[in-house]
Amino acid sequence: MSKFPKGWYIIYTRVNQEKKLAAQLNERNIDCYLPTIKVLSQWRDRKKLMEKPLFPSYIFVYLQDIRSYYSGLELDSALYYLRSGKEVTQVSEEIVRNIRLSVESGNELEVLSGHFKRGETICVCEGPLAGISGEIVQYHGRDNIIIRVNLLNRNLLVTVTSGSAILKSSQSVQG
């Protein structure tokens, strides 16, 4: 029997069950990460700042062994682990760390499901996101850095000042 590769994986949850699943995983001593952002929700009579998942219906889990793999699936809020073909997709520590840095930086974040095909690659050279590379994109009249999280088929949009980034390559990225 082959050894289970411990590391970060992604569970797809039932709709609006991310926080419930995170609490249940913590009760079972399974390390998990649910990146959230604050979003201003507006009703007719009021506005409220709400915390919502950055990636709706996805939660990152750090699995130590096959037992924790099945323990996570036993929960009602969990539907399945994200797969690539027949293999369960493992997420690199670097991707989880970059998402944490982006969320904790306090920068404005927005997740887009579209794919960007053109733009120059830049590297953030200062601040809490130092070392992260991204693609320059024009969005609502502002320059933003796109950090690709392609295993989720999503792109993370992070706002940084132009003074905190340097051009990494003068070639355009063709997608």
From TrEMBL:
InterPro entries, alphabetized: NGN-like_dom, NGN_dom_sf, NusG-like, Translation_prot_SH3-like_sf
SUPFAM superfamilies, alphabetized: N-utilization substance G protein NusG, N-terminal domain (SSF82679), Translation proteins SH3-like domain (SSF50104)
Keywords for this protein: Transcription, Transcription antitermination, Transcription regulation
Keyword hit for Kinase: no
Pfam families: NusG
Gene Ontology biological process terms, A to Z: DNA-templated transcription elongation; transcription antitermination
Domain of life, source organism: Bacteria
Domain NusG-like N-terminal: 5-103
PANTHER family: KOW MOTIF FAMILY PROTEIN, EXPRESSED (PTHR30265:SF4), RHO-INTERACTING TRANSCRIPTION TERMINATION FACTOR NUSG (PTHR30265)
Protein name: Transcription antitermination factor NusG
Organism listed in the record: Chitinophaga rupis
